[in-house]
Amino acid sequence: MNMPPIKTIRVHADKADPYKIYLGHNIYSRLPALLEDLKVSKQIAVISVPPVSNLYLSKIFEPFGAEWQIITRDVKDGEQSKSGDVASSIYTWLIENGFERNGTIIAFGGGVVGDLAGFIAATYLRGTNLVHVPTSLLAQIDSSIGGKVGINHSLGKNLIGSFYQPKLVMTDVSVLQTLDMVEYICGLGEVVKYGILAGPSFFQLLEDNIAEILDRKPEIQEEIIEQCIRQKVEIVRQDTFETGIRSSLNLGHTFGHALETYFSYQELKHGQAVLLGILCSVQVSRLMRILQEGTERRIMNLISKIPVSLPGKLDDKEIDRLLDIMQRDKKVSDGKIHVIGIENIGKVQKGAVEKEILKKAFNILNEFAE
Ligand SMILES: NC(=O)c1ccc[n+]([C@@H]2O[C@H](COP(=O)([O-])OP(=O)(O)OC[C@H]3O[C@@H](n4cnc5c(N)ncnc54)[C@H](O)[C@@H]3O)[C@@H](O)[C@H]2O)c1
Ligand SMILES: [Zn+2]
């Protein structure tokens, strides 16, 4: 039988066993053999959401022989499933099914499923095997890498969690064809972020192929996803527990979080807010005179080709409210707001920024209002 080609990316996170990310098209058939190699037991619990399981669960199941005991559980689609209540109901389900410590929990879905199932795997019986099978663009390039797992608390997002690395990650690019365009664009927010962090050749690849990327052409998609994964893997290798360089992954996020909160997560999703947040970072960097000539034009040009807009114009009062939200964000120390500024493609720096400059940066966003 002809096996589809598969790429392997090795991950060495601090204080965890190394593992591999497998990347390709139509590669789910390889999962049983890869699990055999890991010497895990034959118990598998798949945690998913209906939009993913309805389309793809049979593809995951098919290649497994009768010797495997597979149980599956759908949670409700959406962020609300990253809760203590849902986690608790899954613990009950695992206990009632006699799920043991050497079994494997498969997170099959977007970042919500990855964070939730990862948290369950980290805590159930003090840790079971975890396999990520990410299906959204964001999950494939971001949330399935780096070991952050967790759930939300009524007082805030991602407040309860841990670092817990998977045994393997299987990233099949072909499933992205069914992702909603808005969700795809959200993933592109993180792609552009990696493009700026990575350096000239990857950024140029994005500039040259943005139309094909938006068209979801499989070959370019796989190339882009591979580059993003490698970029995050390298940052996580250097700083697994986010005490330094890993914070560069917050590029565009301090502004983005404020915008998400301001527009109450409905009108603006995370990745869209990150794209707008990167535009703000560009403006801050220009106003602080750290941005190299030509870089502003390149980043603005690239983002202007991606369909994203501010849900409404922001007047001075509204910008003040955004600053208040930023002030409450955890990236504030000594009362100052810290953001990741851009010097050049491939070079960023973190620094405190005056309120007047932040205000001007938000003002520029009005050019991107609907
Ligand atoms: N752990 C980390 O390091 C990390 C990093 C970034 C984000 N996150 C978390 O990730 C979450 C966001 O992840 P997300 O953007 O993937 O959201 P999500 O998991 O809600 O997925 C987005 C939507 O796409 C659907 N979907 C997923 N794959 C699909 C496919 N192949 N075909 C059709 N529909 C599909 C989902 O059902 C959902 O409706 C947030 O909770 C965020 O906090 C975690
Ligand atoms: Zn993000």
Key features?
single chain, 370 residues, alpha/beta, 12 strands, 20% strand, binds nicotinamide-adenine-dinucleotide, binds zinc ion
What is the distance, rounded to the nearest whole angstrom, between the alpha carbons of the first and last residues? 52 Å
Strand content: 15-25%
**Number of helical segments with 4 or more residues:** 13
Number of strands: 12
Radius of gyration: 21 Å
Instruction: Identify the bound ligands.
Output: nicotinamide-adenine-dinucleotide, zinc ion
Task: List the uncertain runs.
Answer: none
Largest sheet: 7 strands, mixed
**Helix and strand run:** EEHEHEHEHEHEEEHHHHHHHEEEH
Give the overall pLDDT as a whole number: 94
* Spatial ordering of strands, largest sheet: 1-2-9-6-5-3-4
Helix content: 40-55%
Q: What class would the helix/strand composition place it in?
A: alpha/beta
Brief digest:
Helix content is 45%, strand content 20%.
Q: Helix and strand layout, with pairings?
A:
Layout: E1 6-11, E2 19-24, H1 31-37, E3 43-48, H2 50-61, E4 69-74, H3 84-96, E5 104-109, H4 111-123, E6 129-134, H5 137-143, E7 148-153, E8 156-163, E9 168-172, H6 181-198, H7 200-214, H8 218-238, H9 253-262, H10 270-287, H11 295-304, H12 316-328, E10 332-333, E11 336-344, E12 347-353, H13 355-364
Helix pairs in contact: 5-6, 5-8, 6-7, 6-8, 6-10, 7-8, 9-10, 9-12, 10-11, 10-13, 12-13
The structure holds nicotinamide-adenine-dinucleotide and zinc ion.
The site of nicotinamide-adenine-dinucleotide has 28 residues, from helix 2, helix 4, helix 5 and helix 6.
